[in-house]
Design brief:
The chain contains five helices and six strands. It is α/β, with parallel strands linked by helices and 173 residues long. It has a single domain, classed as Alpha/Beta hydrolase fold, catalytic domain (Rossmann fold). Strands 3-1-2-5-4-6 form a six-stranded mixed sheet, with helices on both faces. This is Dienelactone hydrolase. InterPro entries: AB_hydrolase_fold. It comes from Adhaeribacter arboris.
Length: 173
């Protein structure tokens, strides 16, 4: 038993060192209050990104879904970076995948997650649960807004955009 444990540790340990080597320092976080006027729905979007700024005491807000604290409204990084759009599951919310967003940011990505209006833990409207076609439209709207944003357009590589989701959030991507 012990030799298997040692073997597993030796196989895993180099991977841990390698995985940590490309990590960025601090994680910035912003909340964008977007409004899709054509569909009469708010698209609240959370964006995480590498930031050169330092963590302040006021940035330490507890959430059960975080891996580490973030710098609220920190400066954006320099250079273009890949973007991942996140879609939460039914009854979830933009912050439920924060653990995944932070892991991606630590490896150089910018990550944006939207609240699918009417289908979150804070805003449950049963009729909206039956409109799965709204989800990709929410993602598309937020993506367009980010690419047209004067700040984010400078740091997002439009040739490197992907999407991920959880449960119902991945079915409609």
């Amino acid at each position: 038993m012990n030799k298997y444990l040692i073997l597993a540790f030796l196989l895993f340990f180099p991977w841990v060192i390698f995985a940590q080597s490309n990590r960025v320092g601090n994680i910035g976080q912003r909340t964008l209050q977007l409004q899709d006027e054509s569909r009469h729905r708010p698209i609240v979007t959370e964006v995480w990104y590498p930031t050169p700024d330092s963590l302040q005491k006021s940035d330490k807000v507890f959430s059960p879904f975080i891996r580490r604290y973030t710098v609220r409204n920190g400066r954006l990084p320099t250079g273009k970076r890949p973007l991942i759009m996140l879609s939460h599951g039914t009854g979830g919310g933009r912050l439920t995948l924060e653990w995944l967003a932070q892991g991606l940011v630590q490896n150089g990505f910018i990550v944006a997650a939207v609240d699918h209006w009417g289908n979150t833990y804070e805003n449950k409207i049963p009729l909206e649960f039956l409109k799965p076609w709204e989800r990709p439209l929410d993602i598309s709207f937020a993506l367009t807004a980010l690419l047209q944003n004067s700040e984010f357009s400078k740091v997002i590589d439009p040739q490197k955009i992907g999407a991920a989701g959880f449960s119902f959030g991945v079915i409609r991507l």
